[in-house]
Automatic annotation (TrEMBL):
GO cellular component terms, A-Z: nucleus
InterPro entries in the record: HATC_C_dom, RNaseH-like_sf, ZnF_BED_domain_contain
Domain of life: Eukaryota
Protein's UniProt keywords contain Transcription: no
SUPFAM superfamilies noted in UniProt: Ribonuclease H-like
One Gene Ontology term of the molecular function aspect: zinc ion binding
Chain spans, region Disordered: 58-79
Compartmental location: Nucleus
Organism: Danaus chrysippus
Any Pfam family hit: Dimer_Tnp_hAT
Protein name: (African queen) hypothetical protein
Keywords, comma-separated and alphabetical: Metal-binding, Nucleus, Zinc, Zinc-finger
Domain HAT C-terminal dimerisation residues, every copy: 114-159
Length: 161
């Protein structure tokens, strides 16, 4: 009996969906399951995890895109240096902060809209391929599609270390 209890405890720790972000986001992004295995009170936490990951992805995309934008816009920046200067540091900071807040709100609202629309769709059949589903719907759910490519991957090993 002690062996069974130890095994059950170990499995509960390894596959605890409440505390494992990978399992929760993977289940949420799998169109075969979506939100079926979550309690209503857990969905708030899971949605917040989704928004955090979505924001991380969009910020990393912005960082990689900004390198290309910097190279392309150097000539434009030279022409606009005088108009872009600010009277003081705090005015510059306020302009920067307000732009970032607006970008965050736009990202959050688009992700929220995607999640709400995705959640309203019926689940697909258990034998259907979720990768094909995301390929067909990537233009409809661009942010979620990018996250699905990350979270719906097969683990390299099934051995827990």
């Amino acid at each position: 009996m002690e062996m069974i209890a130890l095994m059950e405890n170990d499995l509960n720790i390894r596959f605890d969906m409440d505390h494992n972000k990978i399992f929760t986001l993977d289940t949420l992004l799998d169109p075969r399951y979506k939100q079926q295995f979550f309690e209503a009170e857990d969905l708030i936490t899971i949605r917040s995890q989704f928004f955090v990951e979505s924001l991380k992805n969009s910020m990393s995309d912005d960082d990689s895109d900004s390198g290309n934008d910097d190279l392309q816009s150097t000539s434009t920046d030279k022409n606009n240096i005088e108009t872009a200067t600010h009277k003081n540091f705090w005015q510059c900071y306020q302009n920067f902060a307000s732009r970032k807040i607006q970008e965050f709100q736009d990202d959050k609202s688009s992700s929220a809209h995607e999640l709400q629309s995705y959640g309203a769709l019926p689940v697909i059949k258990r034998n259907d391929d979720p990768f094909q589903w995301w390929s067909r719907n990537s233009s409809r759910y661009p942010e979620m599609s990018r996250m699905a490519k990350v979270y719906l991957c097969c683990p390299a090993s099934s051995v827990y270390r």
